[in-house]
Amino acid sequence: MRSIRFRQIALASWASLALASSLAACGGEAGDKDGVEAPPSEAPIVRPASVEELSLELSAQELPEGLVSGGLLVASDVALGVAAGGEGGLFVQGAGGLERVDEAPVSGLVAIEGVGFLVGGQGGLKIWDGALKDTTLDEALAGASVTALATRGAEVWIGTEDGLLVFDGASLLAFEGLGGASAIHAFEGSTDVLLVGVEGALSVLRQEGQGWSLHGLDGEPVQVALPGAGGRILGLDEGALVERVSVSPEAAAWRAVALSEDAGDTGAAGIEAMAVDPSSGAVWVVSAEAIARLEGGAVAVGERPEGLGGVDRAQVTGDGALWLSDGVTLWSAGGQAEVVGFEDRVAGFGEDNCARCHGDGGVAHVMVSYEQWVAEAEQIVDELESGRMPADGRPLVGGGAELVRRWIEGGFAP
Predict the structure, then answer these.
(1) What distance in Å separates the CA atoms of residue 336 and residue 334, rounded to the nearest whole number?
(2) How many Cα atoms occupy the beta-carbon half-sphere of 157 within 13 Å?
(3) Which among 62, 116, 308, 320 could disulfide-bond with 129, CB atoms 3.0 to 4.6 Å apart, if both were Cys?
(4) C-alpha to C-alpha distances, 401 to 80, 193, 346, 349, 382, nearest whole angstrom
(5) What DSSP character marks residue 342?
(6) Could you say which of 268, 299, 333 is where a domain stops?
(7) DSSP assignment letter at 344
(8) Cα(166)–Cα(11) distance, rounded to whole angstroms?
(9) Is the dihedral of CA 181, 187, 188, 192 positive or negative?
(10) Do 291 and 353 fall within a single domain?
């Protein structure tokens, strides 16, 4: 284990993403990493405190060309719907499925409430909120490519080829010597952030008071590791589900994890993929026979749905939806999609994008009331999707056709 040095850069809010100039430095000295005790031949099995039945209804859609290969990333936003990214570029959900909106490869994708999708790649950081826009966070990146993105509550974690940054909407924390992360795993309230580095090297960045320490997992018998609710660190050892537990103040061991209370269960095996919920810290695992959700000591287990192919990618978006892919088909289940309302979403979208022509004194017919939007909603979707509106060609702000479509599908919530 070693302490990590970091520096804090003051920034403005998400509203402007404008850089300020003040700097402060803090940090600590390096130390030794934790030892790992080899598990005894009759090591105890980590068993759940309770088990319940899990019922999943999966929906499926074919992945478009460009998302079939490479790491698939998914994000969901109440105003913008679903976005996906990968080697083939950035795609957003339309009436006909996922539609490409930019061809630049995407290596990081997260949803920021009230802002849009934050998109990372070789070109730095951009925001999609109906159109793709630059951000002034690029100035802090100094031209470095973005290699990974993740959220931890209100924080956005940004991995670059040169370092690791954390943006909380007002300030930027820059860790030294942690560049090249290909994946970052965390959840709201977690004190552990799991980093996947060069050539798959795993490490745990742990928050300890006002500082941070780094725990390298090199040499430990896991190929995948995730933080979980209740301070757990779960991993995969050749497809077997394991948990990292402390066995002494200086040492830890990996123990097999069972998904049942059966005394004869020697641990879950044949795990194809796993993912952590960025909101709750629940860890989802997919095996050849079952799908399970582990949250603290509780486990919910359900049969693997028929028709689900071999899973090589699992992800959970901030709304709690589980996304699974075999590289050809994308399945989704669950999620607590917020209802799109006129007053809280659509009216503001209209003010930002339509009122300059369709407001009082505009060159087109007035369209500002709830009743007017209900009457023309279907036509508005068509006009936005075709690009005929806005008529002045300005980029959309805060949404697009998908926002209005979701309002329609939700029953025109006032």
Answers:
(1) 7
(2) 25
(3) 116
(4) 9, 36, 11, 11, 8
(5) I
(6) 333
(7) I
(8) 11
(9) negative
(10) no
Domain count, the chain: 2
Cβ neighbours around 50 below 10 Å, total: 10
Helix (H) or strand (E) holding 325: strand 322-325
Residue 121's φ and ψ, nearest 5 degrees, are -175, -160
* Same domain membership, residue 249 and residue 373: no
The alpha carbons of the chain give a radius of gyration, in whole angstroms, of: 23
Q: Among 114, 113, 108, which Cα is nearest to 126's?
A: 108
Report pLDDT for 390: 87
The 3-state DSSP class for residue 409 equals: helix
Q: Which of the 8 DSSP states describes residue 54? A: -
The band of 105, judged by pLDDT with boundaries at 50, 70 and 90, is: very high
SS3 375: helix
Count CB neighbours of 253 within 10 A.
21
d(CA 102, CA 120): 12
Beta bridge partners of 203: 195, 216
pLDDT digits (tens, 9 = 90+) for 248-296: 888 889 999 999 999 899 999 999 999 999 999 999 999 999 999 999 8
Q: Output the CA torsion 40→46→47→49 (10° steps).
A: 140
The answer to whether residues 116 and 171 belong to one domain is yes
- Partnered with residue 320 across adjacent β-strands are none
Q: What range defines the domain where residue 199 resides?
A: 2-53+70-333
Instruction: Point out the least confidently predicted range of 39-48, 194-203, 353-362.
Output: 39-48
58 in a structural domain: no
**Inside any domain, residue 60:** no
Over 70: is that where the pLDDT of 34 sits?
no
Looking at the structure, tell me whether residues 249 and 361 fall in a common domain: no
Residue 234: which of 185, 199, 279 has the closest Cα?
185
pLDDT tens digits for range 332-343: 987 655 677 888
Q: Are residues 187 and 216 in the same domain?
A: yes
Helix-, strand-, coil-residue percentages of the chain, each rounded to 5: 10, 45, 45
Peptide bond into 105 cis (omega under 30): no
The answer for residues whose C-beta is within 8 angstroms of residue 362's C-beta and 6 or more apart is: 355, 356
